[in-house]
Each structure stands twice: as C-alpha cells, then as structure tokens.
Design a protein that fits this description.
The complex is a heterodimer of chains A (311) and B (554). Chain A contains 16 helices and nine strands. By secondary structure, chain A is α/β, with parallel strands linked by helices. In chain A, α2 packs across α3 and α3 packs across α10. In chain B, α4 packs antiparallel against α7, α5 packs across α7 and α9 packs across α10. Chain B is globular, with a radius of gyration of 23 Å. The chains are: A alpha/beta (311), B alpha+beta (554). At the A-B interface, α1, α4, α5, β2 and α6 of A face α1, α6 and α7 of B.
Chain lengths: 311, 554
C-alpha cells in the first residue's frame, strides 16, 4: 500500500489537518536549527518512510515515555501511529507476554540492521544483571541483543544515557549506560526526562537526513544541548546586577530574581529549556522559581547535589 | 492443571510478571512478581533531606509528582514545619490535576483495550453508532464522523502495520461490546490522548514541567512570582475543560461499558481496604482531609481509624535478607546478593520460596487493598457528601449495590468517581486561592533551620492516584539516616508473607475465569484494574530457565 497516499488520511483519523502537520514540520525545523525552507523536506521524509521502532524499557521510571506523549504538533498518537511503526513499547502496546515477545524477536530477526532502537533506562550489571529482567532475560542480555542489531540506538533520558538515578552513589545495582554495556555509540537525548520536542526532533533528524544529528562529546545532539541554560536565562540580568534570591519565599523570589545562591545549576548545564520551555510552552523550572538541577548533565544526581546549596 | 506466565504485562508502568495456576477454567492460585530492583532507598542515605523529593519523584514518571509530595510532607513532619495556606492549596491543585491526568489515561490508554475490541469496531454501523452516542454520550457525534472514523480505521488495519495494536487478543470471546460501542470507544481513546496533554499542562502551571515537576520543596512551593491572576485563570479555565471531558465523555463511557460487563462486579474483589486520605483543607491533618483516612475490614461498610504504627513490611517471599516484619520508621532495605539471590528466578513452587523484588506491606498483620476503590469506600462511609452522591448515582444507573463495588468492575468505576469529585472540588480550592491573593496574602514558603544540629523523624502519608503512599524519613545531624517508601503497588501487587497470606492482586485473581489459557485476556482485566505502577515498587522478573518465554501450560 502506498504510504504516501495514506499519511494525510492517517493523520486525519487522529483529527490532524494538513496544516497542523506542516506546523509540526516547521516546529521541528526550528528545534533542529534548520531554516524554515526545510519544513517541506521534513514533511516529505515523514510521508515516505515509516521505519520500525522498538522502544525498550530498562531500569527507569517511564518518565521519558510520559514526556514523549506530551508532544503536540503533531500529537504523540500521530507520531506513534503514522510517522513511525512502533512495533514494541511495553507501556503502550496491547499484546502481552508471549505475543509481545514474539513481536520483538521477529523485528530483531527480520529487520536486523534496519530498525531504530529507542532505549529508556539504565542497565544493572551487578550479579550478572539480575536486578532487571523482562520475559526471563536480563536487561543486560536484552540490550546486547536488541540494541546491537539496530540501525541506531537513541537513548532517551539520563538513565539510558549515563546510568541516571539508580547509578547515583553508591549505585546498589551497578547500573550503567546503554553505551557502556554494549560498546555502541549512542545518541543521548539528555534530561530527566528530556523535553518531548527534543526527542521528536532527534527522530525526525534521522528520518530527514538519514544520519544522526551532530553530537557533543557526551553524545548529546548539539541542536538541543549546544546552549548553556545560564546564557539564555531570562533572569540573567539579575545575575549580572547581583540581584539574588537569598531564600525561597523572600522578596527576591517574588521579584523573579536570580536563583544562583539557592543552588541553580544553570551556569553548568547545557539544555534548551529556556528557549523552548515545557508542556506546550507553559513553564520551565526557573520560571516557577525553582533552581535548575542540571538534569541533562551526566552524573547530575551526585555532581549537582545538594541541589539547594550554591555551587 | 495449567500454569500460565504472563511476562511482560503491557500497558502498566514498570516490569511485572504474573503467574497463575488454572483449574477447570478458573484461576486457582496466583503469584505477582516485581522484576526490577533500583535501590533508591539506599541511594538516599546520607543525602540532604531537601533533595529527597527530587530523587524519590524518579520512583515513577507516570505518577510523577506524588512521591515529591509524600517526601516534602515527611521532611516537614520531621522538622515540624507548617506550610502557608497558599502552598497547601497549590499542592492540592497540582495533585488534583495529576489525578485527572492519571485516571483518564488509565481508563482509555491502559485498561480500555481489555474491554474494547478495536477490530470489532470495523463492522459497526455508522448510523447506529451515532444513535448510540446520542443516547449515552455527552459529546454525541454524527453519522458522518463515524463513517470517517471507520474507514480510516479500516485503512490502518489493512495497511498491515498495526504497530502497538499487533498480536493482541482481538476477537476473544470475553469481548462483549456491540461493534457500535467499540467504534464509539475508539473515538474517545483518541480524544483522551489530546485531553491528557492539557491535564499535564495544568500541573506545569504550578510545578514548572511535567513529568517530574520542580515546584515543591520542604517548607512549601517555589511559585511566588507567578502567583498571579494570569496563571490562576489559566488553571481555572483548563480545569473547566477537564471537568467537561470527565462529565461528558469519561463517566458516560464508564457506565456504558460497565453495563455490558456486569458479571465483572462479582469477580476480582477483596474485603480489606486502607486509605490514608488526602487533600488537607487546613493545617490539621488528617482531620481536614477532603478524602478521609480510614480502613474497611472484612467487607463491612464501616470506617475504622488508621494507626500508622501498625504498618509493617514482610520480606519472607521477597529477595531481601530475612527478618521480622518491621515498621517503616525502623525499616531496612537489604537486597540479597550474589549466590544468595540464586539468579533472582521466581520460586513460586517451594514453601517460602522468594519470587519478587517487592516487599509485602501489611496492616496489623493483614493484607489490604489500596487505591481509588479503597479511597472511595472509606469516603462513602466517612462523610464525603460528593463521593456518596456520585457513587449512589453510578450504582443506581447500573442497578447494583455497594457490595458490587468490591470487584474488578468496581475498582475501575471508583477511579472515575474519584476523578470527577476531585476535579470539581479543585474549582472551590482555586477560588480560595484567588481570595487569599486578593487579600494580599502571597506567602508560599515557611523558612526553617536545617544544619548538622538537626535531628528528627517524620512520615508523609498521602492517598494518590494508585492508593496509599507513605514515605518515612529519619534525619540525623541534618542528613538522611534512613528512608523508606511504602508504595501503593507494593500493597496491591507484593508477594505473599510469612503467614502465607496472598497480596491483594493475587487474592483478586483467584477465581477469575480464563476461557483460553493461551490468551489470558481476563487476567489482564483484573491486573489492569489495579493500575499497576511499579517502578517505585522495585521491580524484576523471570521464571526458571527459559520456560518463561512461553505461556507455560503444564
């Protein structure tokens, strides 16, 4: 069946108009730092390809998946049902037990080297990885099998990217990143969780240009993580004027002054939060008067803590 | 006799394995296994108590926020901090929005497809579906809409790329809805995906972002510069949208679907219920809780008082070092290591065999079910007028009595009832916030001392989307000495205990009819009715050898 003919119909099924779809492509072009003239090319790429994606859950909290389904332009359902062929995802899929496992095995076998693996969660390694299993196999075995046979592995979130919260000291389960246990070079869409727009943009980049986006030395896409929070913070002026919140709830807090002295990690953290904001532009941590905790920096649970003390 | 293992259980948070023994077409015995251990309680030791809420929130990204709430309350209890009224209201508004998100997503995305057959919707008559929606739904759609939906659905199915809908139990004899009801439900399944985005936005108004909010901290909330008319009205108008969806779509769908599955009002029940209660309306806790605290024992509709000292955790059947059941104030988390762990393979056959990473919480030594059903029952007899009225309305429409609530169907229905009542009362609380700001009271934080001279012990007991959630903290010299989380899903989904008492889900599964052991749809129904969410429960999985790869039929 001609998927080109189908896309608009499939989007329409979800109530997404052609206009909404083009708006999404425009947004993606912006997030990726591409000129707006790329929007039609993004649309074309999406219409012609529906690559198979398997989304693996390891040691994690599902916050990255939850963040992903907050995506709009188009809505997460449209990405899942129309842009990609999401063959395996434990939180969303209807199939259970054996039937679920069968899909995964078939994908790895039949589409070896062609499917995209999205990894959410860290890999426990202590005691041969017994602290995390699905279908009787350890995450360690699953990662080596499913990630290594993929065309590319995109890690979403701090856990898959650097071990995350369970790898914080003393790391009771020996949790490690997907790259560490598989030896693969992975894309790390960093954050705890990452912003939905950055996850979607990474996938779109791959579909559009047929290669992974430019990365920094920590594997993070530069289009999203090439910006220091501090440099783009709307409260930067108060930092320069030495106008600081001294304690939560004080006069400075009421005036939206700089949170540096109550622990803000913005000067050490690379992310585009102040530029694209969260939840359809509703807010972001510093906007709500809370210091940045540096969640897109590897090892932030130890490196940035204690969180409410000046760095 | 057949042994059936379902692993993974999809459409839940976390990694869950369910094993059942089937005899004469019914579940005779059941074992629930959490298959992941993350060790957050160990990681918390020695850290700044104020950081605990950020770390524990990562227990779960689905019920995001609630662990932050339990944690800041535990620290405030330990340090004797009283938060300002605005902080209390803002926390309640954020928590209420989280419930609206969580309960609707659970119904449509996680549980509906156990009852709604998408493939059957293909044979629906569009005109009759329009008639059905006009008679039962608050948002009726015309024939043309259903014609469009059906043809698009057909195109999707015909494409052969079924994505997340592949390999499911479509056509199973336990699906009872007429094709038209299935088609209507598919439309609302898609509508919910949009509505949930807005519910999450509501939490971001006060908590910066969702998932994993950054707006709480011990002492109150950080929002103060944004405590203004613009932000309050944004919340209020989005709240009205949510109430409309719940009233016009969610509740009518619940009633319509339940009408075809009334036999499930006699399947999957428990008799003991615990609700910590939540939503303080003054600084008197738990007296001022909107949803009251209480216990229901032996199915008797009478609310008994809760004594948190009677909460213990048993590890006899879990992969931890054995010891007497302990109260969380002195609880320990010592996972087995190396050879003692025996590969963390669930041992469901030998006496006292270990089979889960979840501990087994008990109240006064007894198994308790927690969750919206428990909160609904305790509120029903505990003086919450709105819960009583809404529950009576639902029971009247379905022609059932209160005893029918203690079932798989009742568990799903109670979630909707609580969601509606919680959403409506949030409007009143928003008005209270407006009054405070009008009077010039914008305080959202209470200052306190925390240094190496500070010691204290406290608990944060909440009743959140999935039930009774408790955090216990012991602070010594200004640092966390010990931290224990006893979470809803360990109450419901934990293993058996030293006395052989099965957990709430294991009890509920016993007696469930299973038409085809190779397609255990009925098991998923009862499992999903608990809304399992077990990243916080410390999970893992695995049967002996490679047999777990199959439904084992022996």
């Amino acid at each position: 069946m001609d998927s080109h003919v189908d896309l608009n119909e499939r989007l329409a099924l979800k109530g997404v108009s052609r206009r909404d779809f083009m708006k999404f492509c425009g947004l993606m072009a912006t997030v990726l730092g591409l000129p707006m003239s790329f929007a039609p090319r993004i649309a074309e790429a999406l219409e012609k390809k529906r690559p198979t994606v398997v989304w693996m859950h390891f040691a994690e909290c599902t916050g990255c998946t939850e963040s992903f389904i907050r995506s709009t332009y188009p809505w997460a359902a449209d990405i899942i049902l129309d842009v990609i062929d999401l063959a395996y995802h434990e939180t969303i899929m209807v199939a259970a037990g054996d039937q679920a496992e069968e899909i995964l095995e078939k994908t790895v076998k039949d589409q070896k080297g062609k499917y995209i693996c999205i990894a959410e969660g860290a890999i426990p390694t202590k005691d041969n990885g017994v602290h995390g299993k699905v279908h009787g196999k350890t995450f360690l075995e699953i990662a080596n099998h499913v990630c290594k046979n993929a065309a590319a592995t995109i890690c979403v979130g701090a856990c898959a990217g650097d071990g995350g919260v369970q790898a914080a000291k003393p790391n009771p389960t020996g949790a490690k990143s997907v790259a560490e246990v598989t030896g693969l070079k992975t894309v790390n869409v960093a954050g705890c969780p990452p912003n939905a727009d950055n996850m979607v943009a990474t996938i779109v980049h791959y579909l559009l240009l047929g290669k992974l986006p430019a990365l920094d030395d920590k594997g993070r896409p530069l289009f999203a993580y090439g910006y220091l929070i501090h440099d783009n913070c709307p409260r930067r002026g108060h930092f320069e004027n030495k106008e600081f919140v001294k304690q939560f709830g004080d006069e400075g807090a009421a005036k939206n002054w700089c949170l540096y002295e109550v622990g803000c990690a913005g000067p050490e953290t690379y992310n585009n939060c102040p530029i694209i904001l969260w939840n359809q532009g509703t807010n972001w941590p510093i906007g709500a008067g809370h210091p940045c905790i540096g969640c897109s920096e590897p090892g932030f649970w130890d490196k940035m803590a204690p969180f409410y003390v000046q760095k | 006799m057949a042994r059936v293992v379902v692993d993974p259980i999809p459409r839940i948070e976390g990694h869950l394995r369910i094993e059942v023994e089937i005899e004469n077409g019914k579940v005779k015995d059941a074992w629930s296994t959490g298959t992941l251990f993350r060790g957050l309680e160990i990681i918390l030791q020695g850290r700044d108590p104020r950081d605990a809420h950020l770390l524990t929130q990562r227990s779960c990204g689905v019920c995001t926020l609630v662990h932050s709430l339990a944690s800041v309350r535990a620290v405030e209890d330990a340090l004797k901090i009283k938060i300002p009224p605005n902080a209390r209201i803002i926390r309640n508004l954020t928590h209420a929005a989280q419930n609206m998100h969580d309960h609707t997503v659970h119904f449509y995305q996680l549980c509906a497809l156990d009852w709604v057959d998408i493939v059957s919707a293909l044979s629906a008559d569009a005109g009759k579906t329009a008639d059905l929606s006009a008679s039962v739904s608050g948002r009726p759609q015309p024939k043309a809409y259903y014609e469009g939906l059906k043809s698009k659905l057909k195109a999707f199915v015909d494409s052969g790329q079924l994505g997340p809908f592949a390999n499911a139990y479509w056509g199973h004899p336990a699906y009872k809805l007429p094709a038209e009801a299935n088609l209507m439900a598919v439309g609302h399944y898609l509508d919910n995906l949009r509505q949930q985005v807005h519910a999450a936005q509501m939490t971001a108004i006060w908590g910066a972002k969702n998932p994993h909010l950054q707006g709480h901290l011990p002492g109150g909330v950080t929002v103060i510069g944004q405590l203004n008319a613009d932000r309050i009205s944004q919340y209020l108008f989005m709240l009205k949208e949510q109430i409309a969806f719940i009233e016009e779509v969610y509740i009518p769908d619940l009633l319509a679907v339940a009408g075809f599955y009334k036999d499930w009002a006699t399947i999957g029940g428990n008799k003991n219920f615990l609700a910590y209660g939540d939503f303080p309306q003054s600084d008197k806790e738990p007296e001022s809780f909107y949803f009251p605290r209480g216990i229901i024992m032996d199915g008797q509709l009478k609310s008994l008082p809760v004594d948190p000292a009677k909460v213990t955790e048993d590890v006899t059947r879990a992969w931890y070092e054995n010891g007497a059941p302990l109260n969380p104030t002195v609880g320990v988390t010592k996972p087995l290591e190396g050879d003692a762990l025996k590969g963390a393979v669930p041992d469901t056959t030998s006496k006292d065999g270990k089979y889960s990473w979840m501990k087994a919480p008990r109240y006064d030594g007894k198994v308790m079910e927690v969750g919206p059903l428990a909160q609904c029952l305790v509120s029903y007899v505990g003086g919450n007028k709105e819960i009583k009225e809404t529950t009576d309305m639902v029971m009247k429409k379905l022609g059932i009595g209160p005893e029918a609530l203690m079932s798989t169907l009742g568990r799903i229905g109670a979630r909707g009832i609580k969601c509606l009542v919680n959403a409506k009362i949030a409007e009143k609380w928003t008005m209270e916030l407006i009054e405070n700001v009008k009077k010039g009271d914008t305080r959202t934080f209470t200052d306190y001392k925390l240094d190496e001279t500070v010691n204290g012990q406290g608990a944060g007991l909440n009743d959140v989307a999935r039930g009774s959630l408790g955090h216990w903290i012991n602070i010594e010299k200004g640092k966390i000495k010990n931290y224990q989380q006893v979470v809803p899903s360990t109450w419901n989904l934990g293993p058996a205990d030293s006395k052989g008492q099965k957990s709430a889900i294991e009890n509920a599964l016993i007696g469930t009819p299973v038409a085809d052991p190779k397609k255990p749809l009925e098991i998923l129904r009862t499992v999903h009715s608990f809304d399992p969410c077990i990243a916080c429960a410390v999970h893992v999985i695995d049967p002996k050898t490679n047999e777990i790869y199959k439904f084992r039929v022996s």
